[in-house]
Design goal:
The protein is mostly helical and 198 residues long. Helices cover 59% and strands 6% of the residues. The chain folds into two domains: 83 residues, RNA polymerase sigma factor, region 2, helix turn helix motif (Rna Polymerase Sigma Factor, Chain: A, Orthogonal Bundle); 69 residues, Arc Repressor Mutant, subunit A, CATH 1.10.10.
Length: 198
């Protein structure tokens, strides 16, 4: 922006100083703006957050609870998030906060579910195809892995999220996601007999 000043016979053009953002001030992310709008009661904004984060929540839960319980628990997580959105201090931390709600909901599920007989996810029924049986077997192997690998592998392989997308949604660094995916895939290949173990 420029300002023109006339001094006698001289015409001066002076550049106006532009406001500078302090290091602590930053431009809010689109997700932060959606969180703020949802806090103000905008149901459409919360619906958009659901669209952005439902795969992440589904993957986190799938890594921890039986697959047939996941869809209902996803709904529980978002309902709890909606009810407690006012407690979130930093709108930019929504993904990590939502992920923690999902992990806590999975722990609650296991505390409340006391079954006499433990059933595994790889039970086959007469209508189960060979591909479904293989997928269930691989999912069972992934669920036995350390949590960091388990969660990122399910988000990548089952939910179809990219590495950068996993990082942005979960609040993990891109480097952490890359390492977890690399190590997790290596371990998965070893467990499937696709790679010689060292």
């Amino acid at each position: 922006m420029y300002e023109i000043e006339m001094t006698g016979d001289l015409l001066l053009v002076v550049k106006q100083p532009q406001p500078v953002l302090a290091p602590s001030e930053s431009v809010p992310s689109p997700e932060s703006l959606l969180v703020d709008a949802a806090r103000r009661g905008d149901q459409g904004a919360f619906g958009r957050l659901y669209d952005l984060y439902s795969r992440m929540v589904h993957g986190i839960l799938l890594a921890r609870v039986p697959w047939h319980e996941v869809d209902d628990l996803v709904q529980d997580v978002f309902l709890q998030a909606l009810r407690n959105l006012h407690t979130l201090r930093n709108s930019g931390a929504f993904g990590g906060w939502l992920g923690m709600i999902a992990r806590n909901r999975a722990m609650d599920f296991h505390r409340r579910t006391r079954e006499n007989e433990e059933l595994t996810d790889n039970i086959s029924t007469p209508n189960t195809s060979e591909a479904e049986a293989e997928a269930a077997a691989v999912l069972s192997i992934i669920k036995e892995m350390p949590e960091a690998y388990r969660e990122t592998l399910i988000l990548r392989l089952v939910e179809g999220m990219t590495g950068p997308e996993i990082a942005s949604r979960t609040g993990l660094t891109a480097a952490s996601v890359r390492v977890n995916l690399h190590r997790g895939m290596k371990l998965l290949r070893e467990k499937l007999g696709m790679e010689e173990s060292i």
